């Protein structure tokens, strides 16, 4: 039985990832910025809730402290929280997108490292996107080619690079970036595309439940390693 934390887990892929990890018998903490929504999501699943705003150091520190005090370790961290970052092309919008999508990976991972080191099989999954792949966005045959989301794409490229750098720096912990697939969530509603969140969550869960000798420092989708 593993102890897992998923950020941004009160809805969408994060919620379905929590559900599937619970079905596998793990202890799952739903991290959400909004207390009411987070508590309702946790109650619906039978998960545990921690208030966690990935853009606030104090909130992140408190959440990870709560989990460590209660469980004594963290086995699985899924950095899932994210925003589309669309709208105005200006500094504040860019800062918000990068803070929520990329800087949050640093903020949460750094706070989680002491607890992850207490695990016998520590695993970190960073939910990235093929929209952050140079290979995909420059390929006219790929849907990412026409995606008008500069800040989302750039911040997700940063997530993938952070994943590789963390894997190199912490050899005892597995870090992998995952493209879960185009999913119908609140995030993608503006485009009216995507499959059911539970299908994409299966990809995240697969990488969250690797054996101790599983790969690290990779960028994956459901078909295998993604060029980027």
Secondary structure elements and their pairing?
Blueprint: E1 3-7, H1 12-23, E2 27-32, H2 35-45, E3 48-51, H3 57-71, E4 76-79, H4 91-116, E5 123-127, H5 134-137, H6 150-169, E6 174-178, H7 197-208, E7 218-221, E8 224-225
Parallel strand pairs: 1-2, 1-4, 2-3, 4-5, 5-6, 6-7
Antiparallel strand pairs: 7-8
Any key phrases for this structure?
alpha/beta; Rossmann fold; eight-stranded mixed β-sheet; 8 strands; 44% helix
Number of domains: 1
Into which percent range does the helicity of residues fall? 40-55%
Total DSSP E strands: 8
List low-pLDDT spans: none
Q: Could you name the CATH class?
A: Alpha Beta
Taking the alpha carbons of the first and last residues, their distance comes to 34 Å
Instruction: Return the CATH architecture.
Output: 3-Layer(aba) Sandwich
Mean pLDDT: 93
Structural class: alpha/beta
By DSSP (H or I, 4+ residues per run), the number of helices equals 7
Report the CATH superfamily: NAD(P)-binding Rossmann-like Domain
CATH topology: Rossmann fold
Anisotropy-based shape: globular
Helix and strand pattern: EHEHEHEHEHHEHEE
β-strand percent reads: 15-25%
Main sheet strand line-up: 3-2-1-4-5-6-7-8
Major β-sheet annotation: 8 strands, mixed
**Rg for CA atoms:** 16 Å
Describe what is shown at a glance:
With 228 residues, the protein is α/β, with parallel strands linked by helices. It has helices spanning 12-23, 35-45, 57-71, 91-116, 134-137, 150-169, 197-208, and strands at residues 3-7, 27-32, 48-51, 76-79, 123-127, 174-178, 218-221, 224-225.
């Amino acid at each position: 039985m593993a102890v897992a934390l998923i950020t941004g887990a009160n809805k969408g892929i994060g919620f379905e990832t929590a559900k599937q990890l619970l079905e596998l018998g793990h202890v799952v903490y739903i991290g959400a910025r909004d207390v009411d929504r987070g508590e309702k999501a946790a109650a619906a699943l039978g998960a545990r809730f921690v208030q966690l705003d990935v853009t606030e150091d104090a909130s992140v520190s408190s959440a990870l402290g709560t989990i460590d005090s209660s469980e004594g370790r963290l086995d699985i961290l899924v950095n899932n929280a994210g925003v589309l970052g669309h709208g105005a092309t200006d500094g504040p919008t860019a800062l918000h997108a990068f803070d929520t999508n990329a800087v949050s990976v640093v903020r949460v991972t750094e706070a989680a490292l002491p607890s992850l080191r207490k695990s016998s099989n520590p695993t970190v999954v960073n939910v990235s996107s093929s929209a952050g792949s140079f290979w995909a966005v420059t390929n006219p045959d790929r849907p990412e080619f026409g995606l008008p989301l500069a800040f989302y794409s750039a911040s997700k490229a940063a997530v993938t690079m952070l994943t590789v750098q963390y894997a190199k720096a912490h050899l005892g912990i597995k870090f992998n970036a995952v493209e879960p697939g185009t999913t119908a969530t609140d995030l993608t509603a503006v485009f009216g595309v995507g499959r059911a969140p539970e299908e994409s969550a299966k990809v995240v869960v697969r990488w969250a439940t690797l054996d101790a000798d599983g790969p690290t420092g990779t960028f994956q989708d459901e078909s295998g390693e993604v060029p980027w």
